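Hi R.,

Here's the chain you asked about this morning:
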Amino acid sequence: MDFWIIAGLAAFLMGLSKGGVPMIAILAVPLMSLFMDPALAAGLLLPIYIVADMYAIYLFRKAFSLRNLKILLPGSIVGILIGFAAVSYVPGDAGKLLVSGIGFYYLANALYNRLSKAQVPPRPADVPRGLFWGTITGLTSYISHAGGPPYQAYVLPQKLDKMVYLGTTAIFFTIVNLMKVPPFILAGQITWDSSAQAVWLAPFALAGAWTGSRISRALPERIFFILIEVALALVSIKLLYEVLVG
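And the predicted structure, written out as tokens:
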């Protein structure tokens, strides 16, 4: 019973994130790791991510940045392939340090711009940066479902409209998560048993996505993006803490 309570909570939090509540899904794998190996927890949660992703596309389908998708997705394919090839050799802490470092880099730059009161214009969706950050996103997403911080580092400086941001994010991570399914199966992280468990947990993720969409639509745009930066800071601190404390 304890397992199903925690698993239901993890699925609900994951759904909240897909519905637009910033990056709260980062808590899902650690919660599930209380009962199982983190790699198996990531495999159990992946099908649930995809179900919530599909619903998120339905919720935010009316606005998205096609240019960003065209730039980011090729890079993410490379990142997933690197992750699949290196997952047995790269320590989990190395991935956590990479993700937290990216988060701190973006936040430090954003803080500097605010303190200097510089009027920073929106940064265009350029190909070199997009391919780089897309690759890092694919890699960190494969290793630990933690693709949010590198994705934010590329997309947030563009200052997209809130709904365009949500739609682009939903479509991008749906495709990324679908691409992760074959290597997860080959690695034994997705099994028939885990798929059966995922079926029971999917309704919690859908309920979370519906709840998250109501929250994100109600938030003023400025508050919404401030919350994303706060969530990014908390995630980065949490990952760094896990590496240092263990």
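The chain has ten helices and no strands.

Let me know if you need anything else.
M.
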